[in-house]
Amino acid sequence: SMLGLVLHGLMNYDLSLKFLQNALKITLKYHGATSLKFAHSHHLLATVYESKGEFRLALQHEKEAYSVYKSQTLTKQAVILQRALNHIYSNTASACTPAPKFSTPSLPMILQQLNITCGILLIPLSEQQVPDLKTELKGAHKVDQ
Questions:
Q1: Could you give the CA distance from residue 27 to residue 35 in angstroms, rounded to a whole number?
Q2: Which of 7, 80, 122, 127 is the most exposed place for a label (fewest CB within 10 A)?
């Protein structure tokens, strides 16, 4: 996928499509048709087709990506709803039944998923750890010189 993205940036669309189509096949083989990586591969293909002006193919790949994203979201919501229903119909006495929560994905969650898809690992640091890391890096840089 990364080579396909680079070639797309260089406007070499045909070669980009070859790499991205191969990435789609590999993703399907190793992650399955319902994985978010598979959906992301479809989205990447759609962007290249859109750049080439082949809008029907771009739309087709975006629809494929959307169907995977939709099934992932609906599956999680169905599990939450089923748990709430099981709690309602259980014979345990309860003062109140918690309402099922249907949340929309937040921007940080979406970015995290995209980073995971692309293989980028982000390590969160607290405000206290940042100055310590800067000091440590400066010390390591002085040792190297």
A1: 9
A2: 127
